[in-house]
């Protein structure tokens, strides 16, 4: 395990800074954690308490996010392979962005992704990979954007999207969202194959 704790910010030089462990990288900061070097970690957990962003760029076969709590900034986590959220990812400040990206693999959401008021949530795969939502992805009135180079789906009885604003999806091989979704509006595009199915329970 690699533990980083700062009464200020945590950062690394993008050109030559790197953190490597097959285990957990844990970061606790007050004014932001920005780690966008050549990191290779197996799992990531972060807390930030006042201001500044939480950002991690990583290159492993699978990165597991075991939990993020953020106050005062955005959240951005990207992995070159698969990305799995196994713990709650929460932003406590309105008007911010939560972005999770699996550049070349599957993005799997197994825990709550929670924004505040007008927060935007962005879930993405870039060059390959599906997006599977097995947790509650919610914000107040902010937009939820889900973009996949494969399929977008929800686990039976467990995955959901909630916002009084817009849920926008863009997929290559189908979008099937039959969970307990509660959204104000819906916009979808699918470019190759598979069904487009959406169930909404908002009044």
Could you outline the blueprint of secondary structure elements for this entry?
Layout: E1 2-5, E2 10-11, E3 20-29, E4 33-48, E5 54-58, E6 62-70, E7 75-79, E8 82-85, E9 89-91, E10 97-104, E11 107-109, E12 113-114, E13 120-128, E14 131-133, E15 136-138, E16 144-147, E17 152-154, E18 160-171, E19 175-190, E20 196-200
Parallel strand pairs: 1-3, 2-4, 3-4, 4-5, 4-6, 5-7, 6-8, 6-9, 7-10, 8-11, 9-12, 10-13, 11-14, 12-15, 13-16, 14-17, 15-18, 16-18, 17-19, 18-19, 19-20
Report on this model:
The chain has 203 residues and is mainly β. It is built from no helices and 20 strands. The chain has a 20-stranded parallel beta sheet that branches. The chain is globular and about 45 Å long. The relative contact order is 0.10. The mean pLDDT is 97.
Structural class per helix/strand content?
mainly beta
Radius of gyration: 16 Å
- What's the story with the biggest beta sheet? 20 strands, parallel
Give the SSE string. EEEEEEEEEEEEEEEEEEEE
Q: Please, what is the average pLDDT?
A: 97
Total strand count, please?
20
Q: Kindly, what is the distance between the CA atoms of the first and last residues, rounded to a whole number of angstroms?
A: 46 Å
The helix tally amounts to 0
Query: What is the general shape?
Result: globular
Regions with little confidence, pLDDT below 50 for 5+ residues: none
Helical content class: under 10%
Portion in beta strands: over 45%
């Amino acid at each position: 395990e690699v533990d980083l704790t700062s009464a200020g910010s945590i950062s690394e030089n993008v050109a030559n800074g790197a953190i490597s462990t097959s285990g957990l990288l844990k970061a606790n900061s007050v004014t932001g954690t920005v780690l966008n070097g050549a990191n290779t970690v197996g799992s990531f957990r972060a807390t930030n308490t006042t201001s500044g962003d939480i950002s991690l760029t990583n290159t492993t076969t699978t990165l597991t996010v075991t939990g993020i709590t953020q106050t005062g900034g955005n959240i951005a986590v990207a992995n070159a392979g698969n990305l799995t959220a196994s713990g709650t990812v929460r932003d406590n400040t309105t008007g911010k962005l939560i972005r999770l990206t699996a550049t070349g693999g599957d993005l799997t959401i197994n825990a709550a992704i929670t924004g505040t008021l007008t927060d935007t949530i962005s879930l993405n795969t870039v060059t390959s990979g599906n997006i599977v939502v097995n947790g509650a992805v919610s914000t107040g009135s902010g937009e939820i954007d889900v973009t996949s180079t494969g399929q977008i789906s929800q686990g039976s009885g467990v995955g959901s999207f909630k916002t009084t604003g817009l849920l926008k999806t863009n997929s290559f091989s189908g979008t099937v969202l039959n969970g307990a979704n509660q959204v104000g509006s819906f916009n979808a595009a699918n470019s190759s194959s598979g069904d487009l199915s959406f169930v909404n329970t908002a009044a």
